[in-house]
Amino acid sequence: MEFLASVDTGPAGRRGLAEALAPELRLSAREVETRIQVAVDLRRRMPGVLAAMRAGLMDGYGARRVLQVTAPLSDEHARQVDALLADKLADAAVSTWQPVNMARCVARLVEQVDPGGHAARARQANAGRRVELQHGEHAQSRLTVDLRSEVASACYARVDAMARRLRRHGETRTLDQLRADVTADLLLGNDPGVTVPEAAALVYVHLPVDAALTMSDAGCELDGYGPIPAPVAREIMTNPHSTLRTVLCDPATGDPVDLGRTRRRPSAAMRELVRVRDRECTVPWCHRPARHCDIDHQAEWAAHHGPTSVANTAPRCRRHHRLKNAPGWTARHNPARGTTAITTPTGATYTGRRTPILTPNSTSTAARSRPDPNEPPPF
Ligand SMILES: [Zn+2]
User: Fold this and answer.
1) Tell me: the pLDDT tens digits for 145-194?
2) Which domain range does residue 176 map to?
3) Which regions are flagged for Polar residues bias (predicted)?
């Protein structure tokens, strides 16, 4: 990386340099050009990430993910994100370094340093929405649609819910096959032969009360994705035909205060609150959405006939629910604090912490803009 950055002579000569280096590096000229660009961007915009790579803590793939997330920022804002990220990573859990977790963490920092630019960035990215048909091998082709994240999430949730319902009614096709077939049926105007209630395909948008009241533009999140611009979240909240569900959150604690619905049985309401609060499987490197997870009682509570309450339960995907009781695996989870410690059969222990829906702002604004180094890491 540092070699590539050091030989670069600027954008004008970059293509020629890439052509010259390509045979030596045994890569395509285009790949060499990309790597030079990455190296130059890291040195100019993200020296902390470059230092982490030098220390062997991050690989090229992780660094590219960070660069993609910070790409729309000015150099100054990018360097601010880099400094905040270095602070955050100084004592972060190992799972924070995994590319998906890292990208989410960086997305929150981007919103923090440039909250005003969020809506503009989203608008600019949305202008590039498109449908693409790519022909592949073995008589298979791929159809991709670029959409706003909340639209894509709602589409996927509905297709997924339909596929799952078909699967329960004796289908032999796999879920992947069913989702593909249901999508094709819907696009071609054919009846997929199944309907799902709205609740089965719900996607949540978390909105701090002050953002809902347009007093702030920070802290709006789409489940399974991350921060979204406040104007988009408010539009979803006020649109009576939206298939997305808005969850209002307390800006002081970051906890959900209102699910926007009153007529729910307590147990169903509780399960829903746990899913809304934890959002994903509690294993720090698993991002399975909570709506497809089991609501797991903590063993020690079950043994002591602990109450089935929000404070005693957490979502755990089927795979990790089974793994919890497998030989050599131990899992300790504190649902109230959102902390998890998992010991694998190799004896290594990994700790993680639920990312709060919002950054609580009950402390001073100074403390918010600069994270307390004594705070536990977010994952
Ligand atoms: Zn899991």
Assistant:
1) 999 999 999 999 999 999 999 998 888 999 999 999 999 999 999 999 88
2) 131-188
3) 358-367
